[in-house]
Design brief:
Layout: E1 16-19, H1 22-30, E2 46-48, H2 54-57, H3 62-71, E3 74-77, E4 92-97, E5 100-102, H4 107-110, E6 137-139, H5 145-159, E7 165-171, E8 188-189, E9 192-193, H6 196-213, E10 218-223, H7 227-230, H8 236-243, E11 247-252, H9 268-280, E12 284-289, H10 294-307, E13 313-315, E14 340-342, E15 345-350, E16 353-358, E17 365-374, E18 380-386, E19 390-395, E20 416-434, E21 448-465, E22 471-480, E23 483-493, E24 499-507, E25 510-518, E26 527-528, E27 532-536
Parallel strand pairs: 1-17, 2-3, 3-4, 4-7, 7-10, 10-11, 11-12, 12-13
Antiparallel strand pairs: 5-6, 8-9, 14-15, 15-16, 16-19, 17-18, 20-21, 21-24, 22-23, 22-25, 25-26, 25-27
Helix pairs in contact: 6-8
Length: 539
């Protein structure tokens, strides 16, 4: 998944304070997020299960398989490595590049005519990953019917292993061919240089044939949203390309440093308008954010919530079962309006909360809330501060009256949450981990080797004084160098005695901290246990 991006511009302005309308926010806060699974406030998380993720897909036990199914709405996966894993994870999108002919492929010798050439007859490459005057992928001739037919038949055979869909990389509606130095060089076709319009028409024809050949299969295009000077679906070829897919993947999402504020060609507003055009054609968008930090992920998530119609998806970098950002668990329910301007911010209201975005280059905004809400970490907040290129996802503290946060009324009982941990035994489980699977190897997966990982079964339990029902969220962070990173998040129900308990598997030789937060219930105030330190020594 590749594409270029433009450098970002930023400005500094004076800090401003914005006060949310108490009436409209009270409506947003007061209702519980009870919408259906495909409401606009539902988070559909997507991850590329590349070789770095093999430790979680090689030979997971049933609980780990269930975790992946529950948390990964879709995964981008590679054949043949994943062919035998679709039985426990059938939601995979099988990866295939639109026009790559890998240098070690037998097609190089069998069909040299399928490789695009420059005016001197030299083979052209897809300009990515190049070094020392060469690149891993030749550029295939998408105008050649034989090449297209071969491509479709190979894909059809791979999908037969039980994949949910097909992820097609480099569906570039702008010509992307080059020499071994990553310099863009136009190909010579039928004795003349291929025009930009002809390239778009050829790509549109190709993907239309793919769509016709694979009915009932989800198809995702990794495409350039600003192709043909931002013409979008007003260009007939681009429209045909979009209509040949179910989803359009947008690399980096709003984390792309080339996006700006305002309403220009490279603005976040133009980016959102392109997504609106996809929705108008009945297609969804995948905001493939590249950020690995909490601020960047929340910016991409808030932007996703601004545009989502319930048929979109979102992602962030570095997310694994052992390092999972809690923001992906948020569900704001049904949207009560479309995104709209709110001062210099963008805002959207839901039955279970709100999403706010401050575009790139804007002044820092401090938003004062008329009543407390919960941020993505589950903390009660009275205000949020949004620098440029950032967002906030805020949700109601629970069910109750529409004019107050759940459990915050003057007659609500004061609760006290306690937390304990008990090590109950060690467990060892074999894992298989594959070596690097580079795309230049045409998706082949090298032989794997075995590693051993020790599991410490630990009971997490506690109580909430005076509360006979409600939900307790337990966050588990592990120590990584000089900082804490998210490891697990549990959502536990209280029994009639006000107690909760759950057994988790943690890693030996690690330091953890745990926090239990009672979310409150009608007549009962929220409370928190404070952090509990757990040191698991290596056995």
């Amino acid at each position: 998944m590749r594409r270029g991006h433009r450098g970002a511009r930023s400005t500094k302005r004076a800090r401003k304070i914005v006060l949310l309308s108490a009436a409209t926010l009270a409506f947003a806060c007061g209702l519980a997020p009870q919408a259906g699974a495909d409401s606009a406030g539902t988070v559909h998380f997507v991850r590329a299960a590349d070789s770095a993720f093999d430790t979680f897909t090689a030979s997971p036990a049933q609980p780990e398989q269930a975790w992946l199914r529950d948390h990964m709405w879709r995964m981008i996966v590679w054949s043949p490595y994943f062919d035998q894993r679709t039985s426990w994870y059938p939601q995979g999108w099988m990866y295939r590049d639109a026009y790559a002919i890998y240098k070690n492929s037998p097609l190089v010798a069998q069909h040299p005519e399928w490789i695009l050439k420059d005016g001197a007859g030299n083979n052209l490459y897809i300009p990515w990953g190049c070094s020392s005057g060469t690149c891993p992928q030749y550029a295939g001739d998408i105008s050649n019917p034989a090449f297209r037919h071969h491509w479709i038949e190979e894909v059809r055979a791979g999908l037969a292993h039980g994949y949910r869909g097909l992820f097609v990389d480099d569906v570039n509606m702008e010509e992307r061919t080059g020499d071994g130095q990553e310099n863009e060089v136009p190909p010579l076709v039928a004795g003349g240089l291929l025009s930009a319009g002809s390239w778009r028409a050829d790509m549109a024809q190709f993907v239309a044939e793919v769509r016709a050949a694979l009915p009932g299969i989800e198809i995702v295009h990794n495409a350039i949203w600003f192709a043909n000077s931002g013409a979008g679906t007003s260009d007939p070829s681009i429209r045909r390309e979009v209509e040949s897919a179910d989803y359009i993947n947008l690399e980096r999402g709003v984390n792309d440093s080339g996006l700006t504020g305002g309403n220009g060609r490279w603005s976040v507003s133009a980016f959102f308008a392109y997504i609106d055009s996809l929705h108008a054609l009945g297609r969804g968008a995948v905001l493939e954010g590249g950020a690995t930090d909490a601020r960047g992920m929340e910016y991409n998530l808030a932007s996703y919530l601004l545009v989502s119609n319930g048929n979109d998806a979102v992602s962030g970098g570095g997310q694994t079962p052992s390092s999972w950002w809690p923001g992906w668990e948020v569900n704001l329910g049904a949207a009560t309006d479309a995104r709209h301007g709110f001062g210099s911010l963008l805002r959207r209201d839901f039955t279970g909360g709100i999403a706010l975005v401050n575009p790139p280059g804007a002044a820092t905004q401090t938003v004062a809330l008329p009543t407390a809400m919960r941020d993505v970490a589950g903390e009660l907040v009275q205000s949020v501060t949004l620098p440029a290129a950032s967002g906030a996802v805020l949700h109601a503290a629970g069910t109750g009256a529409t004019t107050a946060v759940l459990g915050e009324g003057p007659t609500a009982a004061v609760t006290q949450t306690t937390l304990q941990t008990t090590v109950i035994g060690h467990r060892r489980r074999a894992h298989r981990r594959g070596h690097d699977r580079h795309r230049a190897a045409h998706g082949a997966h090298a032989a794997s080797h075995r590693a051993r990982r020790a599991g410490v079964m630990t009971r997490v339990s506690g109580s909430v004084r005076l509360a006979p029902h409600g939900t307790v969220q337990v966050t588990i962070d592990r120590r990584a160098g000089h900082r804490w990173v998210a490891a697990k998040r549990l959502s536990l129900q209280l029994n009639a005695a006000g107690r909760f308990s759950h057994v988790v598997r943690l890693r030996s030789g690690r330091n953890y901290r745990l926090l239990a937060s009672y979310l409150g219930a009608s007549g009962y105030r929220p409370s928190s246990s404070g952090y509990h330190l757990l040191v698991l020594r290596r056995r």
